[in-house]
Design a protein that fits this description.
Order of helices and strands: EEEEEEEEEEEEEEHEHEEH
Strand content: over 45%
Oligomer: single chain
Number of helices: 3
Shape: globular
Largest sheet: 10 strands, mixed
Distance between the termini: 55 Å
Length: 279
C-alpha cells in the first residue's frame, strides 16, 4: 500500500468554534415585569423560570459546555422603565486551554430604563491553565435606575488539584448613567499568572476573587454593613457618589461563595441568590 501524500495546496480544516448570541427585552405591565423580545442563537440559550413576585429571572446557558480560544458569546439585556430583572448563569463558565493566540470572548451589554433594576449575578468563571479570556461588560443606566453586578473568578478548582500557571485574563467594565461614565475598570492577568497572583499587592496567593458593584440611590447606606460582613484582610468596600465597590479574595471557590452570599443578600434587600446557584 502506498501512503497518500497530503496536498499542500489544500488548506487545513479550521477548528470549529462556538458562537452564541442571546437577547432579552423586558417591558412593564400591570402584573409586573413581562417579556417583550426573546432571541437566542447558536450555543447561547436562555431560560425564564416562573416567578410570582412581578419580577423576571433569566438563566443564561452556554450549551458548548465551556469556552476556548476563538469562541465568542454575546449577551444583551434590556430592562425597560419600571421593570426588574435578575440574570444569572446555569453553571460556572469554564475557560479551557487556548490552542492558539486567540482568546475566548464574552461580551455583555445591559440597559436599565427609568426606575428599573437589574441584578447581574452570573456564577463563577473558572480559568484553566493556559486559557485565554477577554471579557467585557457595558452598562447603560437611566438617571434613577439601580444596578448590581457580581463577577467571581476561580484560578482552577482547588478540590480538583487544578492550578493556573500561565494564561491571559482581560476584564473591561464600563458603566454609564444618563450617558455619563460613572465606573470604568480594566483588569489583566497575563503570562506567569501563578507568580503575578502570588504578589501581595495582587492576590497574595489567593485562588478566587470577586468584584461587587452596586450603583443606585442609597449606596452609601450599605457601606458600613458590608464592611462588617467583609471584616478582615480578604475584603474591602468603598463608596463614591451613589456607587459602591467591594473586592473579595479567598483561598478557593467555596470560601469565596461563603463570603459573597451574605453580601448579595444584603444588597438585594434580603433576597437570596438565584436558585440555580445551589443546583
Amino acid at each position: 500500500m502506498i501512503a497518500k501524500i497530503p496536498d499542500a495546496s489544500v488548506p487545513a480544516a479550521r477548528p470549529q468554534r462556538a458562537r452564541g448570541e442571546g437577547r432579552l427585552v423586558m417591558k412593564a405591565s400591570a402584573a409586573g415585569t413581562r417579556l417583550d423580545v426573546f432571541y437566542q442563537e447558536g450555543c447561547a440559550k436562555i431560560r425564564l423560570p416562573r416567578t410570582f413576585d412581578g419580577t423576571m429571572e433569566a438563566v443564561l446557558i452556554n450549551t458548548a459546555g465551556g469556552l476556548t480560544g476563538g469562541d465568542r458569546i454575546d449577551w444583551r439585556l434590556d430592562a425597560a422603565a419600571g421593570t426588574r430583572l435578575t440574570a444569572t448563569t446555569q453553571a460556572c463558565e469554564r475557560i479551557y486551554k487556548a490552542a492558539g493566540s486567540a482568546a475566548a470572548a464574552v461580551e455583555t451589554r445591559i440597559v436599565a430604563g427609568a426606575g428599573a433594576r437589574v441584578d447581574w449575578l452570573p456564577q463563577e468563571t473558572i480559568l484553566f491553565d493556559r486559557s485565554a479570556l477577554a471579557r467585557r461588560l457595558e452598562v447603560e443606566l437611566a438617571e434613577d435606575a439601580t444596578f448590581l453586578a457580581v463577577e467571581a473568578v476561580l484560578l482552577g478548582r482547588k478540590a480538583m488539584g487544578e492550578r493556573v500557571e500561565t494564561g491571559v485574563f482581560r476584564d473591561r467594565w464600563r458603566i454609564r448613567r444618563a450617558g455619563r461614565l460613572v465606573h470604568a475598570e480594566e483588569a489583566r492577568l497575563d503570562g506567569d499568572i501563578a507568580a503575578l497572583t502570588g504578589e501581595r499587592a495582587v492576590l497574595a496567593g489567593a485562588r478566587a476573587f470577586a468584584t461587587v458593584l452596586f450603583c443606585g440611590a442609597g449606596a452609601e447606606a450599605h457601606l458600613a454593613p458590608l464592611r462588617r460582613l467583609l471584616d478582615g484582610p480578604d475584603g474591602g468596600v468603598s463608596h463614591w457618589q451613589d456607587k459602591l465597590v467591594a473586592r473579595v479574595i479567598a483561598e478557593d471557590g467555596f470560601a469565596l461563595r461563603k463570603k459573597l452570599l451574605p453580601v448579595i443578600s444584603h444588597l438585594r434587600d434580603g433576597a437570596g441568590v438565584p436558585k440555580v446557584w445551589s443546583l
